[in-house]
């Protein structure tokens, strides 16, 4: 905004009796800004800088960069890559392990049975599925839903890391052992890593607090443990409130 316009705006507020601007500054990491000449997708005309800036465009650009990835052997068996979906401005990002059959067929994360449980948990938290962001450690389905292998996770992780950097969520929820292990990167081998031991205990990924909890597929087989995940989600909601209050954002 030009200096003169800014002065007019300030005068306007002063006339209404404000001695400070009635805005809250959201403390989040900088939103990457694309060059206005770089179209964010085929449908967006180049040069439309309003439509081509911010997290949305940065995610689209990342999707474009990943293209028809062949960095690992999972690419050979996929129907669709599952990039991730949700709000680019999400406060909470849920991270699972890998797409299953239904996700591979639709190209969307958590749309099978485990996904229904995740969606209902998100709603019980008072949130909308479209208001959070959901992604996985690997973006292509491992054959027969086996665990992703080390080389596959290593190849795919930079893409997730970039999604996290762009979205800059206030909180990450890691769903299950594989997601938690990859974000926590502990010294012990993955075979020794127990989600039962780690769930419910905050850790940091970059500067984002992460709450590890059970994977919804585990909860479908072990319904008695659902209350533990529910208590983890209560901790997530309380921390989110705290972080927003600290940043002066109305709840
Ligand atoms: N399980 C996962 O970890 N991710 C999905 O997207 C679906 C099932």
Layout of SSEs?
Blueprint (H helix, E strand, L loop, with lengths): L2 H13 L38 H13 L18 E2 L5 E5 L4 H6 L6 H12 L8 E4 L13 H18 L3 E5 H9 L10 H4 L4 E3 L2 E6 L2 H6 L4 H21 L5
Parallel strand pairs: 2-3, 2-4, 4-6
Antiparallel strand pairs: 1-3, 5-6
Bound molecules: uracil.
The site of uracil has 13 residues, from helix 4.
Task: Characterize the structure shown.
It is a single chain. This protein has helices spanning 3-15, 54-66, 101-106, 113-124, 150-167, 176-184, 195-198, 216-221, 226-246, and strands at residues 85-86, 92-96, 133-136, 171-175, 203-205, 208-213. The chain is of the alpha/beta class and 251 residues long. It has a single domain (36-246), classed as Uracil-DNA Glycosylase, subunit E. The chain has a 6-stranded mixed β-sheet with strand order 1-3-2-4-6-5, sandwiched between helices. Strand 5 (203-205) and strand 6 (208-213) form a beta hairpin. Helix 2 (54-66) runs antiparallel to helix 5. The two termini are 29 Å apart. The model is unreliable at 32-52 (pLDDT under 50). The site of uracil (URA) has 13 residues, from helix 4.
State the main characteristics.
251 residues; alpha/beta; 9 helices; binds uracil
Number of domains: 1
Distance between the termini: 29 Å
The gyration radius over C-alpha positions equals 20 Å
Q: How much helicity do the residues have?
A: 40-55%
Q: What is CATH's topology name?
A: Uracil-DNA Glycosylase, subunit E
Bound compounds, please? uracil
Provide a count of the helices.
9
Low-confidence segments, given as residue ranges, are 32-52
The shape is: globular
Characterize the quaternary organization of these chains: single chain
- Secondary-structure element series: HHEEHHEHEHHEEHH
The CATH architecture comes to 3-Layer(aba) Sandwich
Major sheet: arrangement of strands: 1-3-2-4-6-5
| Average pLDDT number | 87
